[in-house]
Design the sequence.
DNA sequence: ACTGTTATTGCAACCGATCTCAGCAACCGA
DNA sequence: TCGGTTGCTGAGATCGGTTGCAATAACAGT
């Protein structure tokens, strides 16, 4: 592969390299006739521009980092999927950055993205986002966060309406005849997690029942602990809301190991709407987040911010997805 | 952030930029005194080298693409996780490339990685790898494949011993007293999938039983179809081997919806050893692949190939992981 | 025919490093 | 003291593009 630089194309097409450059990146600045000729020649040679060289000169690249705590978590995986899609639809390349919840790594990724002239980045946090920390890196580099942030200021966000989601879950369960409904958090740290829990607490109280938090831990073992807690109770709830699908899986699994059946003995509803839920045993009833939309919107927000400086906060509507893990309470 | 180039550091340290360059990338070529001074100054300014500029000049970067068909599949997610880890332990940045099984995209990613001077790439395929296609891009760019390849030649691979895995599963099931054992493929395309199925077929025949393939489709609905097939049988098998964990999940879920219980009515064993399996209902017995090892080894193989041109084919040992989805056959 | 646009294209500096080559000082043995 | 290493640093070309500016061509208007 004879090194294919812009100059060899230029020579082959009989023009100067700046013309080739323009033919690619500013088509309207070149006579259409010439442009087509150049493009044809380039095509023939199998030439593509070097994103590196471009980025270096332009001081802006097409690398966009997606910072997630754990790609193993299907929620982030689905997010990553739709985002890679959305990204390369627009000519970006997604850089997957996995932090394992380590803030130091997050910082590292930020400086790296800075150095690579990333036009912006997407953060799906596992902790409350430190807006100040973000600002430190905000010299021309924008970030959009997939979570709510405190103070509502400089950084665009996209989230789903947690309260509305919990309300949907509660309504569904009430409609089925449940009156005693427990909650397992299993996630903590993000504002979203907080919001879901708060919504549960408030809405339950409002409806006259007493909230019943089976576990508020932040790891996946919350499922196990929640199940144990459930078993110890004199009159356990007839339904359980899990803060997200993964926790719901864990709860059902732990319950199952102890002989409690879902939904026969207790209904369980999750929150996320993972594709995986459809293959669970039983298929999981859940509050579905429009993950695909979130990915696209995150990128749109970032581009919009870059273009006109506007900072939006998009809140999406969740949807109830009824599958097999909920039913009427046992008499 | 006053643009921090190598020149400003050079000026600040009172040396030429080439000395700064050497201080970073070839420390032994600079008087230790000078070097330390430079490093100190750089540190003070908060300077880091531009990976872009480096790559452009050196014609080799630290970007390493990981090409997977679907990050939503937990197997690839776990792989991606350990690989990002392994990658940035060695100073690389992993570029996640999701193909959705589209070979055209794979091609696109290859040319992109070529353009970015990636020192090598990792491919976890969803189809039989076309070695020839790889070669087209092999001008200085190496690839390691997470699957077996035909012909065994120029490309390094890492896989687990499929036959051994199936043997482990079969032994476990036999030990439990099962004699009639079915198989659901649910994946197809890769050599690995082929190998697992072949191993099942052979080993079953060898032990005198007749193989019983419930479904050999390649999508996840194989689970559903397999379950239906199972239900239609006069004397269904007492145990089922699924070609991978995801399919096992699907099978158990589909079976559950039709009132068949695992492991009471039928035992199911998966293949992969996903962390998720521990949270399934019931927790999934499975053949565990050493995914973390695979990630590290893949990178090592690539580096080794770059260094001394050697092409290795590593075959790892799978392990039986007994959890709750298998038990003795019902009388 | 002459001057004032406007459309195209070439020139050359520049982005932030790396690397070969050359220069220079200190050091070595004779 | 002198030629011959050896060690360290500076110069300047180069990687593959981009872009402001100048040059030329083409086209109007009068």
Sequence:
């Amino acid at each position: 592969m004879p090194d294919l630089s812009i100059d060899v194309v230029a020579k082959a097409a009989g023009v100067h390299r700046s013309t080739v450059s323009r033919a690619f990146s500013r088509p309207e600045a070149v006579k259409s006739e010439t442009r087509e000729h150049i493009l044809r020649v380039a095509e023939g040679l199998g030439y593509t521009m070097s994103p590196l060289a471009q980025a270096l000169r332009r001081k802006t690249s097409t690398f966009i980092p997606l910072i997630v705590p754990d790609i193993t978590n299907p929620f982030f995986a689905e997010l990553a999927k739709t985002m890679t899609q959305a990204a390369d639809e627009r000519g970006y390349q997604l850089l997957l950055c996995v932090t394992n919840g380590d803030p130091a790594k997050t910082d590292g990724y930020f400086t790296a993205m800075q150095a690579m002239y990333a036009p912006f980045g997407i953060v799906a946090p596992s902790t409350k986002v430190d807006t100040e920390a973000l600002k430190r890196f905000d010299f021309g580099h924008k970030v959009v966060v997939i979570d709510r942030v405190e103070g509502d200021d400089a950084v665009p966000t996209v989230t789903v309406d947690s309260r509305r989601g919990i309300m949907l879950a509660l309504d569904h369960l009430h409609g089925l005849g449940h009156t005693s409904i427990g909650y397992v958090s299993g996630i903590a740290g993000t504002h979203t997690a907080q919001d879901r829990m708060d919504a549960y607490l408030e809405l339950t109280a409002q409806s006259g029942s007493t909230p019943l938090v089976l576990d508020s831990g932040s790891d996946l073992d919350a499922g196990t602990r929640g199940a144990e807690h459930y078993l110890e109770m004199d009159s356990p709830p007839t339904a359980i809301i899990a803060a997200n699908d993964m926790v719901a899986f864990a709860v059902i699994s732990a319950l199952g190991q102890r002989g409690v059946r879902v939904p026969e003995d207790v209904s369980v509803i999750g929150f996320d709407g993972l594709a995986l839920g459809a293959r669970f045993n039983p298929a999981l009833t859940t509050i579905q987040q429009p993950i695909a939309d979130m990915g696209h919107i995150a990128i749109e927000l970032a581009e919009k911010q870059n273009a006109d400086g506007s900072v939006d906060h998009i809140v999406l509507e969740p949807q109830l997805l009824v599958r097999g893990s909920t039913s009427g309470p046992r008499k």
Notes: Chain A touches chain B through 51 residues (CB under 8 Å). Residues 15-19, 22, 29-31, 34, 53, 55-59 of chain A lie near DNA strand C (CB under 10 Å from a C1'). Residues 291-308 of chain A form the longest helix (18 residues). The two ends of chain A are 75 Å apart (CA to CA).
